[in-house]
Write a structure and sequence with these properties.
With about 300 residues, this protein is of the alpha+beta class. Helices cover about 60% and strands about 15% of the residues. It has a four-stranded antiparallel sheet. It has a three-stranded antiparallel sheet with strand order 2-1-7.
Length: about 300
């Protein structure tokens, strides 16, 4: 049975609903360019906000039902077709994915209907929200320049070989194995990605050819970070040791930190402020609904 974290007018809000809202929040801040380490630092705050949003979503669902906001069969079919498109046009694959979540197709369509009703309600609530003025955009940028400054980051792959024990012989064996891998790559006998898939003890090796994606300072252990940031592009590093084992790294791209001008991020700031205004309008409406509701936490 799913854990219940709150009730709204006697109806439960499961932990899954809060987790869903948390992922939406994290995705939003990622889109806004907030560094991963800052998101991690704010996780407790984001979890509290996610609970509030899950409660707000429930209140909006109930309000949309009370107002009997219509969603036509054609609209619902169009949304369902969109999801089929995400599965390469294969309806059976979508159905299997839906069933894997413990839902039926009809249950999934009911969720789509509820989502469409909420979206229509939100558009009604936000109909009068104005676009930010140029003065508001400039003032926000001047007050938050540091938040828009990007940090140095690199795109890299690595191969990890873990010793089979803590003794010196096991360490020497792991290091020798990695040295042979490095030699095959450097000599052109094999590619970094192929060797990572075949031999890396890191999950990134098997699935992504050793790719770690983009990362900034403070996201990796210090010895690994130092090598990755100082390494020349497309050069295989010497073997380095961390608490995880022995690594080799290749840096495939890098970006230097940059303070963008207002002209460079004008539209991004405008969209952020408009989203914030819409969010405030919805929050004010939810607060009115919440004041009338019976809500219990825990």
């Amino acid at each position: 049975m799913a854990a219940v974290v709150a009730t709204v007018n006697g109806e439960p809000i499961p932990q899954e609903a809060v987790d869903f809202e948390l992922q939406r929040l994290i995705h939003f801040y990622q889109q806004q360019g907030l560094p991963e380490h800052q998101i991690r630092e704010q996780l407790d705050t984001l979890r509290a906000r996610a609970l509030d949003q899950a409660i707000g979503t429930k209140l909006l669902i109930d309000e949309a039902k009370r107002l009997q906001i219509p969603v036509s069969g054609e609209e619902l079919d169009a949304q369902f077709e969109t999801y089929i498109g995400q599965f390469g046009g294969d309806r059976d694959k979508l159905v299997k994915a839906i069933e894997a979540q413990g839902l039926t197709v009809e249950g999934f369509k009911q969720e789509l209907r509820q989502g469409a009703m909420i979206n229509k309600l939100i558009e009604q609530i936000c109909a009068a929200v104005p676009q930010p003025t140029e003065e508001e955009i400039k003032a926000h940028y001047e007050a938050h320049q540091a938040e828009y400054q990007t940090q140095d980051r690199v795109l890299a792959q690595h191969i990890l070989v873990k010793p089979n024990g803590a003794d010196e012989a096991a360490k020497a064996e792991a290091k020798a194995k990695l040295a042979a891998i490095r030699e095959r790559i450097v000599s052109g006998q094999s590619t970094f990605a192929d060797e990572a898939k075949a031999h890396s003890d890191c999950p990134s090796g098997k699935s992504n050819g050793g790719s770690l994606g983009w990362f900034g300072r403070g996201m990796m252990v210090k010895p690994f970070e130092d090598v990755a940031f100082n390494l020349a592009l497309n050069t295989v590093s010497d073997i380095l040791e961390t608490q995880f084992g022995y690594h080799i790294i290749v840096k495939t791209n890098e970006e230097k930190g940059h303070q963008p001008t207002l002209d460079e991020i004008h539209d991004r700031v405008r969209e952020f402020l408009f989203h914030a205004k819409r969010g405030q309008a919805v929050a004010d409406h939810v607060a009115e609904l919440r004041a009338k509701a019976d809500i219990k936490i825990g």
